[in-house]
Amino acid sequence: MKGQGKQRYSMEERKEFRKLILEKLKKAKKDLSIFKKSFYNDQNNGTDDTYPTFKAFEEGSETLSKEQNAQIVEHLQKFIKSLNAALIRVDNKDYGICRITNKLIPKERLMAVPHTTLSIEGKRHLEKINK
């Protein structure tokens, strides 16, 4: 396993991870703001004077869209919370250590999923237990 010989990532590497996490956090917060505005924006699409059937379809579509937006907002809030927790781990110098195996998570995985707390090995182990 790559990085297995090290106990933790260097200060320079943690700075690189911090920068990546902050970029993802900024984008996630921006996306959350957009979806919240969309979710709370109750615009009338001008269907008042159209056929009742069309209005029913329109309202059904609007409901689905609101449900989807609510799910996306919830997902983004959870993602932001995970990224903030990752920043704390960077500051505590225990960032990148698998919570199951206690081994260093490969840098490639952290670059792809910077908020992860599991190596692939740890994730597979957890999946076996949860089956």
Report the CATH C-level class: Mainly Alpha
* Alpha carbon gyration radius: 21 Å
Portion of residues in helices?
55-70%
Q: Alpha-carbon distance between the termini?
A: 25 Å
Query: What's the overall geometry?
Result: flat
Largest sheet: none
| CATH architecture heading | Up-down Bundle
Query: Mean pLDDT score, rounded?
Result: 82
Elements, N to C (H/E): HHHH
Domain unit count: 1
Please, how many helices? 4
The strand count comes to 0
Structural class computed from helices and strand pairing: mainly alpha
Strand content: under 5%
Q: Short summary of the structure?
A:
Helices cover 66% and strands 0% of the residues. It has helices at 11-40, 52-91, 107-112, 120-130.
Task: Outline the structure in words.
With 131 residues, the chain is mainly α. The protein is built from four helices and no strands. Helix 1 runs antiparallel to helix 2. The radius of gyration is 21 Å and the shape is flat. The two termini are 25 Å apart.
What are the SSEs and their pairings?
Blueprint (H helix, E strand, L loop, with lengths): L10 H30 L11 H40 L15 H6 L7 H11 L1
Helix pairs in contact: 1-2
Question: Keywords for this structure?
Answer:
131 residues; flat; 0% strand; Four Helix Bundle (Hemerythrin (Met), subunit A); mainly alpha
